[in-house]
């Protein structure tokens, strides 16, 4: 190191950018290591470690967390270029800059070093001022890269968060806030999709329209908040009562709910309606001198090409109207 030994106690002023270099030298010769140590001494921005056992290089590199690795090529039992390739293959040293430091000065060896993943090449022993300059340059490039990498990851994470929030918002536009059931919008989308599916498969669809009986009177007698609680309880019965994942319970509006049953015949739909009617009874909600009840209108159809889901909904609505007219607390098909 020509200018190294004579000027090693003089600090070369670091650039004003406050990058700290952690230098790790892997070289089997202690003499070389000590010479480089002297060359880098007194630099407030350089921290120096060396390792003369190439078999320990990867482990030491993981511990030291260098910002620059100085790598010898010719070492007993280990090819320096193999080590360079291994730094590149390992997570901890994947992008750490490697300066090859070798006595070899031929273009083929230099070319092979870059091909193996080295970032720079210096012939031993290099000029001290140049070595320091290159170490600083590579440290700055590496730390800038890490910062960009981190900024990039933070950006990606915030994008993912935004996407999650959007998905949640999108989900909430289909949920009824009071009962947690699907809302009218969700119901409309759902029945349109199921209608098409049933059209292809030729299977029947049943719709149950469920309306709380004399609910205006309930609100008047017990208050609107108590009325809200009733709607939640009825919604709970419907949610629990609709077991198959292809079926849907939704709030149609006000105190009116709707259930879609896929691939269920009129007889099957009637059974489900009876069970729901019983379970609302079982809630045992006092309404004046009686229990709170619901009325249910049921309609079933096998979709045809020229039909519309609206006709099925209207049929269920008409059945519900008949159930009300016939005295409430009952099912009409
Ligand atoms: P019927 O047996 O014929 O269905 O009589 P009803 O009183 O239940 O029917 P009507 O349509 O006259 O009244 C429905 C009532 O439902 C009136 C309305 O204030 C109440 N309602 C609608 N939505 C809500 C709600 O979100 N919370 C509460 N507490 N009440 C509601
Ligand atoms: Mg050597
Ligand atoms: Mg009602
Ligand atoms: Mg109503």
Automatic annotation (TrEMBL):
Coiled-coil blocks: 148-175
Query: Where, per the database record, does this protein carry 4-aspartylphosphate?
Result: 72
Residues annotated as domain Response regulatory: 22-139
Please provide the record's keywords in A-Z order: Coiled coil, Nucleotidyltransferase, Phosphoprotein, Transferase
What EC class does the entry list?
transferase
Which intervals hold domain GGDEF?
A: 203-333
The reactions it catalyses are: 2 GTP = 3',3'-c-di-GMP + 2 diphosphate
Q: Which Pfam families match?
A: GGDEF, Response_reg
Give the GO molecular function terms: diguanylate cyclase activity
Per the UniProt entry, the Enzyme Commission number(s) are 2.7.7.65
Q: Which SMART domains match?
A: GGDEF, REC
Give the PANTHER family listed for this entry.
Answer: DIGUANYLATE CYCLASE DGCM-RELATED, REGULATORY COMPONENTS OF SENSORY TRANSDUCTION SYSTEM
Name listed for the protein in its UniProt record: diguanylate cyclase
State the organism named in the record. Answer: Kaistia dalseonensis
